[in-house]
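Cross-posted from the bioinformatics board.
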Amino acid sequence: MTREAGAGSRVSEIRPAASGLNLPTSFAIVSRDESWQRGTMVESRLMHGQAHQRGNEIDAVDTCDERLARACDAAIEAAHALVDTLREAQVRMRVRATREDDVENVETTITLRMHDVSIVTTPADAHRDYELLRGLAGSKPASKPARLPIVWRNGSAAVLLHEAIGHAREHGAAENSWPAWLTVESPLALRRETFRDVPLPRMTHLIARLSGAPFAPPRERIDVQLVAGGGYDPVTDVVTIDIAVSSVGAFTIHRTRSEIAASLIGAVGEPIRYPGVICSREGQQLYVASHAPVMLMDSLP
Amino acid sequence: MTSLYRKWGRVIRYENGMLIRVEEAGEASEVEGVFEARPMPWAKGAQTRVSMPHQPLPEANVSQGVESFVAQTLLSVHSCIIERLLVSAGISTHETNGVTWTEESRRVHLSLVKERLRVLVDLASFDLDAIRAAAGALTRAGDPRKPPPRVRLAPNVTAALLPSLVGEIAIEQRGGGFDGRGLAIETRAVTADDPPNWYRPSYSIRPRRAWLNLRPLPFGTIDESAPQAVALLAPVIGTNLHVLCIDGDDVFPVELSAEHVAAVSGNEPVWYPYAAGSFGVEMML
């Protein structure tokens, strides 16, 4: 999903937002970003650069790291093999080859878009998620919107928790009272999108798990399949979730964290990988792998 | 369209406690509908008579300018919580379509919080008075009120709203400089036709047609006794505004609908970094 930039962090001035997290002193990146329509490439962007940090200052230049460039080129070539098999979708492929101090990483993400609905996947899951999108995008709502309990399917509850727990934690929000059966792993690390950016405390991933949760979904309910986006406002403590595909069509949830926590009444099964969270904060878009079980939410007041 | 666009840029940016200096150069092309962008060595431009920005960035001075402004800003807004402060100064040289030009820029984005209110400030200059005014109003803000029958919008509020008023009031594109394809920006009435110019905020973004540097044309008479909306409390959505308003000694949040513009001042407008450029001048709803 594409999440609009949140309302910002409540960081104290002068002190960098990085306190308590390991801050790499050097960062290098080579990335390729391509857009494809019906098997034809329409946009291609190469970006590279390096950043060196000393205290609260960063010097960044667009120097190319040849080793990362080779890794990036190899990954985008591998991703090209998928293009012809995803022809019904608009496809955006993005490879980021990075090095932070001595740690190298190559990340390939693929955004698929059909009928104004997007998902984000990886090469390993691209075909399965493409079929999911084909089945859901453009589908007609089974019923009209109503105030009903909500069942979050396909791991979509991970997006809700990404905003209500993950981002709240990034912003240092007060602890909230979540159901005892729910545990959420959402570790923070200093991450940046490009060499031009200041690293920020960001989630590396989110995994929600249950232990002894009740689960009794009523017959009358809303089934959420895919989420379009969301946000968390640290000033009002309000979470916004835009549902893209559900049994009642698209709709928006706009509630405080405490209202959301109180409404979670059950869950079932193992965490399911949600196809796509591209998280945007301060204009920096980063992939956050997200997993959650099927979750039941009471109808919201 | 096959013309090559090249850009060389340096910027110094303060971002929530960090100071970052960025130097980069890149080029972009569009060939038969395919847009490609890539970095390029600074020396490559020497082949096209531009080896680097014609006016090299005086890094020390610019850095001090940014840091000095940040320090003054922090002192000026101590009564509020700073949610976000971004301050930058940069210089860039552009080359395309046989034209080369250099631009210098300053940008400020400030988000101030007091209790459950957030004021947003966006400037293209290091204008400390504007920041002091926003912080002062936020500090004094009381409870929300219903919209007054007449409201004056301060230039910064007008500038944020103006892109949503295309087709609603008389607006011109103010001439001067070059667009993202090296075409001269000429003064034109903004119409429903395709804009004649192209907006390219970055070398890595495909340029798109856009009306640049919007300016509302003056009409009517401003009622100087009307309350004045001085600061945005949220980004403008369509013609809906959530603003901080001053009426005498009272300061209050109010939600406004800008569907009916009653007057636009003839005073000299100020440029703000909204959309593809927007000139602000006092306006009355």
